[in-house]
C-alpha cells in the first residue's frame, strides 16, 4: 500500500474506518478545514484495492476544498469512500456503523450523497450522526442534490457558450452527454428546454432507456467512443473522473467541455492541450458546485428557491474564471485554482484548523 503521508501530504486528516461485524471498510479524508468543516459526499464503490480507494478519496477531498471555496461557502473540503458494491453490500448495519465514524469526528466532517449513495441512505447514517446533509425531504432535508448540480452545470455551459459564440444559450448546438444517471438525466431536460440537440451514452442500458422514454428526440449511442465520433459542439462528461485523457482530447470535435463529473482531467497538462486545440474547458469544480450549494443550504434549514438562486451564481463565477484566464494568460483550470486558493488564503487565515 502507498505511503499515506506521502500521498496525502496536503491533507489534514485521513481516517480508516473498519467494522467487521457489518462489513464496513471506509476511508474519510479531510483535505482542509481552513474555511470551515469539510463538506463532501460519501461514495460507495467496488474499488479494486484499498490503495485505489485511498487515491480516489484524497483526490476527491482536495477537489471539494476548491469547489467549496470557489462557490463562496464557509466550508472546507472532505470526502468519504465506502469500499464495496452498493447493490449487494449496502445494509442498515453498515450505514449505521459508518454514521458512528462520521459522528466520532465531531463535526469536522459533514457528509452527503455521492456515487452509490442516496438521500434515503443519508437518513440511515443520520440515525447515528448529527453531521449529515442531503437527507430526504420527508426528514427535513434537501433531497436529491443532483437536481441543482445539473442546474449549475447548465449555467456553466451557458457562460461557456457566451464566451465561445457570443450568446449564453445552447439553442441549435449539439451537446454530447456521457453519463445520464443522476446529474446527466436532469441536464438533458435543461438542454432540450433550451433548444439544444442532445446525444447521450451510458454504461447502464437502463439509464439510456429511461432517457429515451422521457425524451424521445434525444439520440442514444452505445459507448463514449461512439459519442465522441459525433459532430459535437459541447462535450459533457457526467460519469466518473478521468474522462479527459490525451486520446479523448485529440479526438474531440467540440469547442466546449463542460460537465458534472469530478476530476475530469486525467493528469496535469491535459488542460494545456485543450487550450492548444482551441477547446474551452469549464473547470469541473466550478460548474458542478450546485449540489454542494444545495446540501450546504440544508445546514441552515433548506429552502429550494434560495438554494437555486445561489446556484444560479455559477454563471457569473464561470464568467469570472474565464476572465482571469484571459487576464493571466493561463488555462481556465489554473485560473479557477487561483481564485479558490486566493479565497482560502485570504479568508482561511482568519480561521485556521476547524474545531467544532
Structure write-up:
The protein has 16 helices and twelve strands. It has 356 residues and is an alpha/beta fold. The protein has two domains: 4-139, Leucine Dehydrogenase, chain A, domain 1 (Rossmann fold, 3-Layer(aba) Sandwich); 146-290 and 300-336, NAD(P)-binding Rossmann-like Domain (Rossmann fold, 3-Layer(aba) Sandwich), CATH 3.40.50. Strands 1, 2, 3, 4, 5 and 6 form a six-stranded mixed sheet that branches. Strands 9-8-7-10-11-12 form a six-stranded parallel sheet, with helices on both faces. Strand 11 (256-257), helix 11 and strand 12 form a beta-alpha-beta unit. Helix 4 packs across helix 5 (119-125). The longest helix is centred in the first third of the chain and has 21 residues, at 50-70. The model has no long low-confidence stretch (mean pLDDT 94). GO terms for molecular function: nucleotide binding; oxidoreductase activity, acting on the CH-NH2 group of donors, NAD or NADP as acceptor. It holds the Pfam family ELFV_dehydrog.
